[in-house]
Design a protein that fits this description.
alpha+beta, single chain
């Protein structure tokens, strides 16, 4: 089980594991249009990794009141999907690191 922290400027959050090797984090702060520099810290046992990334959020487009709900659901789905993919990739990196460390310790 990994401990994952995501930070951008003064915002910082700890990811929660929602399934094996799949983590999520609430990131309402990052919904503003523009580029958001991210720092992701992964701790898993004796292994650790620090990664930098840039999240680019496009400008919102006006919608009618009837389209607002579907747009909100779509935004939520996109953000959730992106977060799950990012955190799944981090989980794979942690798993690979553990496997390599285990192989090196046997030699």
């Amino acid at each position: 089980k990994a401990e994952i922290e995501v930070a951008s400027g003064s915002w910082k959050a700890t990811a929660a594991e929602i399934a094996p090797a799949t983590y999520t984090v609430a990131a309402d702060t990052l919904t503003q249009p523009g580029k958001h520099l991210l720092t992701v810290t992964v701790l898993a046992g004796d292994a650790s990794d620090l990664m930098d990334a840039t999240l680019e959020v496009g400008a919102a487009t006006p919608v009618s009141a009837t389209g607002q709900l579907s747009q909100n659901i779509s935004k939520w789905a996109v953000w959730s999907g992106a977060a799950v993919l990012l955190l799944a990739a981090l989980g794979l990196l942690v798993a690979r690191s553990r496997k390599q460390r285990h192989q090196h310790s046997q030699h």
